[in-house]
Design brief:
Layout: E1 7-11, H1 16-27, E2 31-36, H2 39-49, E3 54-58, H3 67-77, E4 83-86, H4 104-130, E5 137-142, H5 155-176, E6 184-190, H6 197-200, H7 203-207, H8 217-230, E7 234-236, H9 240-263
Parallel strand pairs: 1-2, 1-4, 2-3, 4-5, 5-6, 6-7
Helix pairs in contact: 1-8, 3-4, 4-5
The structure holds NADP nicotinamide-adenine-dinucleotide phosphate (NAP).
């Protein structure tokens, strides 16, 4: 089974989860426009699949003052984009017992990559997705199991993912109640630890032998793909499922009460 989308804009397509997901989409007949900063990887991605199946745009999403123009350009070049996957992310190790050693600009870069840039992207991409009505459209965010319960080592990373998780709940609630937006499905994928460059490029983790933690990307993808094709709005993968069931059910009930009171 495939997805009801035909042209996907995938941000963070040069490595790990994003690259594997891009290739799975292409295998299923979906055109992918991959985005990332590393041009040589984007070129290799298009060369591998051919221009009839793949395209690429080199862009650094932390350049927030360029996002509006970039979105205009990309949606003009590819007016049939019907799904956007916000997958890019970085992770930093942070030790508040040694505050003098905290590199604040590096920490803010993590916040900007994982959250602030997404706010810009969502704001500027939504009008395009709204204009796709009544055809199905989707906005997919890749958060983390650490959005639900934090891991102190990467405190700020967890906070950015918790913020994204919360934001997606609210956006979903708003769009599904709006005539001009309810064709846009808000989907969240919550991965467990997966073997990618997210860890293998962190010197601190490599130094303690944890550069390769997590499940293989293909194992992650098989489960995430099953959730996507089943039409799930939230897709906790692997061990995150247990965390999700125990933390999110009571929170969802409270959220339901808030929605009932607010939307009367
Ligand atoms: N791996 C895990 O254990 C795990 C667990 C939970 C959640 N996640 C989440 O899954 C997503 C994918 O992570 P991954 O594990 O696949 O990591 P990865 O292998 O390091 O890939 C990260 C991707 O994000 C892109 N990216 C980073 N900064 C960017 C920027 N400023 N502009 C544009 N693209 C940027 C990278 O492309 P360029 O470097 O070419 O720009 C790359 O394609 C992330 O959101 C991550 O937080 C991962």
């Amino acid at each position: 089974m495939s997805l009801p989308y035909k042209n996907v804009l995938l941000i963070g397509a040069t490595a790990g989860i994003g690259l594997a997901l891009a290739e799975r989409l292409i295998e299923n007949g979906i055109f992918v426009i991959g985005v990332g900063r590393r041009k040589e990887r984007l070129d290799a991605f298009v060369a591998k699949h051919g221009p009839e199946k793949a395209a690429a745009s080199q862009f650094d999403i932390t350049k927030v003052d360029q996002i509006e123009g970039w979105v205009k350009e990309i949606t003009t070049t590819y007016p049939t984009i019907d799904a956007v996957i916000l997958n890019s992310g970085i992770q930093r190790t942070l030790d508040f017992t040694k505050p003098q050693a905290i590199d604040l600009p590096r920490t803010i870069q993590e916040l900007n990559t994982n959250y602030t840039s997404y706010l810009y992207l969502i704001t500027y991409l939504l009008p395009h997705l709204q204009a796709r009505a009544p055809n199905p459209a989707a906005l997919v965010g890749v958060s983390s199991g650490l959005a639900l319960v934090p891991l102190p080592r990467c405190a700020n990373y967890c906070a950015t993912k918790a913020a994204l998780h919360s934001l997606l709940w609210s956006i979903r609630a708003q769009l599904e109640r709006n005539e001009g937006s309810k064709h846009i499905k808000i989907i969240e994928i919550l991965p467990p630890a997966v073997q990618t460059e997210l860890h293998s490029q962190q010197a601190e983790l490599v130094a303690i032998g944890e550069g390769n933690i997590g499940i293989p990307v293909e194992q992650f993808l098989d489960e995430a793909w099953a959730g996507l094709t089943a039409g799930d709005a939230e897709i906790p993968v692997g061990i995150v499922k247990v965390r999700f069931d125990t933390t999110e059910e009571p929170r969802r009930e409270q959220f339901g009460r808030i929605l009932k009171a607010y939307y009367k």
